[in-house]
Specification:
The complex is a heterodimer of chains A (about 230) and B (about 325). The two termini of chain A are about 30 Å apart. Chain A has about 230 residues and is mainly alpha-helical. Chain A is built from eleven helices and one strand. By secondary structure, chain B is an all-alpha fold. Chain B has a domain at about 65-230. Chain B is built from 16 helices and three strands. A two-stranded antiparallel sheet of chain B has the order 2-3. In chain B, helix 4 packs antiparallel against helix 7. The longest helix of chain B has 23 residues, at about 30-55. Classes of the chains: A mainly alpha (about 230), B mainly alpha (about 325). Chains A and B meet through strand 1, helix 4, helix 6, helix 7 and helix 8 of A and helix 1, strand 1, helix 2, helix 10 and helix 11 of B.
């Protein structure tokens, strides 16, 4: 590879991707032996539910916002959207709590936690704008009640929950993009850093869990965060 | 600290971004198969729930429906919009600049910072202009609107106050409001005209009307509807009021947004349940808690909770059993 290529942005991006996420790390066919619990399933269940949310949302988008009020098929697709969202949050909250109790931010995995928790908050915004976009009584009431909180924080002046057009665009375009980027980034970080090892067993930690465990053993009990 | 641990700690300090690979054992793990199986399971579960429970779709409240169902409540709300005593008229930013109306967190009012970005003059926008748009072939209404607009604020207040008092003893007959005689000036024409426009459905359209053909902004109609008791009564019947954990509920028996439980919780407890600054205070709390959630890895103490309450031993029980057996 030439020196010129090394200076290229394209070459730098390719080399960075190859260094940080080689194919065998991006899509491994094995995991450390400690990855052996039902709690690990909830991450992939969350992504699967997100896929169903997106698919049902795309179906609703193809027909337009009023379709589901007048069509039995539309009502069914709206029901798929509603229940996939409920499952999405159910799986995500269990995943989040599981990762909390595993202190999954250890070993320079802090950004994995940060992107995941921001994705959780963005999901709340996406669901909220979805409820506002239903065009029924619940939408009216949630808009009427929700405006006070947003206005009190100075947000309502820019994010007007009474403006259906604005909320609809946030729901079907802006927040799905934000959430999609966060989820992809989160998953790539998980693949880059791997699944967090167990808390070390006293006296054996350094040899069994790698440097990330040493942070636990060698520093104060509060020094468990990712330092990156 | 052991010698080996100290060595690793030094290495970590030297290059804190480098994470070495796990040095223990591995086992086969098919991520693609896991995702496909998860997708099939979640899809089937979603279809099952959708078939079994469907989804709610309660009819929205229109101004026409409200005016037909409760003419007196509608007229009282419209009168409060006309004389500037409604909640919206005295709301403050972002709708108007009513002094001291904005909520505060201590001395700080975030509500006032953006200013009036969605200006609403309730008398003009919700009553006078909509009536003006249909007054073309109604000289009595034209004259009444002209008289009201040109009157002094004191005179306007005198008319609306008198009409408001008369509303207490008004009756509804055949959808028409029968108000006892009195000195209401042009308000005696304006209020029945507003009610008639509302009952015909014209006010729903008039509040949406702009210079464009297509409309998507329901700020005015929802603010108007929220000023009456009818809307709140409907919400109460659906257990949607604030004191009923309303923000996280859905109409009927469907699950709403249970993930909003913590936000809704604060509205149920003192001092927030009775505070005039409840929204600002609760938003302040939730913003702080959200930041704490995001920054858990960096907050001493908080990030150590999982170590102090060792639920992780349950998650990794097989691993620890294996370690103990060595």
């Amino acid at each position: 590879m030439s020196t010129v290529e090394h200076k290229q942005w394209s070459a730098r991006v390719r080399e960075s991707a190859e260094k940080n996420l080689p194919p065998e790390q991006l899509l491994p066919d094995e995991q450390p032996v400690y990855v052996h619990s039902w709690i690990y399933v909830f991450g992939v269940l969350t992504i699967a539910a997100f896929a169903v949310v997106l698919a049902s949302g795309v179906w609703l988008s193809l027909e337009g916002p009023t379709w589901w009020h007048t069509s039995k098929i539309g009502l069914f697709v709206n029901s798929l959207h509603l229940w996939s969202v409920e499952l999405f949050f159910f799986f995500m909250v269990i995943h989040l709590w599981g990762k909390f109790w595993m202190a999954a931010w250890r070993g320079n995995r802090s950004m994995t936690w940060v992107t995941g928790s921001i994705a959780f908050l963005a999901s709340i915004g996406a669901a909220f704008t979805g409820y506002l976009s239903q065009q029924n009584f619940a939408s009216q009431w949630i808009a009427s009640e929700g405006k006070d909180g947003l206005n009190s924080a100075g947000v309502g002046a820019f994010f007007n929950v009474l403006n259906f057009g604005q909320m609809f665009m946030w729901h079907i375009l802006l927040l799905p993009i934000v959430l999609g980027v966060l989820v992809v980034g989160h998953v790539l970080l998980v693949r880059k850093h791997g699944v967090v090892p167990p808390y070390p067993v006293e006296g054996q930690a350094a040899f069994d869990t790698g440097p990330e465990a040493v942070v636990d053993v060698g520093a104060s009990s509060d020094d468990e965060g990712g330092a990156s | 600290m052991s010698t080996a641990a100290a060595g690793f700690a030094r290495a970590h300090k030297r290059d804190h971004r480098h994470v070495e690979a796990w040095k223990g054992g591995y086992r086969p793990y098919d991520l693609v198969k896991e995702f496909v199986v998860a997708l099939v399971v979640v899809t089937l579960l979603t279809v099952f729930l959708a078939v079994l429970f469907s989804s709610p779709d309660d009819q929205p409240v229109t101004i026409a429906r409200w005016a037909r169902a409760d003419a007196k409540d509608f007229t009282a709300a419209a009168l409060s919009e006309l004389n500037g005593t409604s909640e919206v008229a005295q709301y403050g930013p972002p709708y108007n600049s009513t002094p001291d109306a904005a909520q505060k967190i201590g001395p700080i009012s975030l509500q006032t910072i953006p200013g009036v970005r969605i200006p609403i003059d309730t008398a003009t926008d919700l009553v006078l202009n909509p009536l003006q748009s249909v007054a073309g072939d109604n000289p009595d209404l034209q004259a009444a609107l002209s008289q009201y607009r040109s009157a002094s604020p004191q005179q306007q207040a005198a008319w609306t106050t008198a009409y408001g008092k008369a509303l207490d003893s008004a009756t509804v007959s055949g959808g028409q409001l029968q108000v006892p005689s009195g000195d209401y000036g042009p308000v005696a024409v304006i209020m029945p005209a507003e009610l008639a426009l509302a009952r015909s459905g014209g006010l729903d359209g008039a509040l949406l009307a702009t210079k464009q053909f297509y409309q998507t902004d329901y700020t005015k109609p929802i603010l108007f509807i929220s000023g009456g008791s009818y809307f709140e009564d409907q919400a109460s019947a659906h257990n949607l009021l604030g004191e009923q954990w309303g923000m996280m509920n859905e109409t009927g028996n469907w699950p709403g947004q249970p993930w909003l439980w913590l936000y809704t919780f604060w509205y149920q407890v003192p001092p927030f349940a009775t505070s005039g600054n409840a929204d600002a205070l609760i938003w302040g709390i939730m913003i702080v808690l959200s930041v704490v959630l995001i920054l858990v890895p960096f907050i001493p103490g908080v990030r150590s909770i999982p170590k102090w309450i060792p639920i992780y031993k349950l998650v990794w029980r097989d691993y620890y059993k294996g370690m103990a057996a060595r």
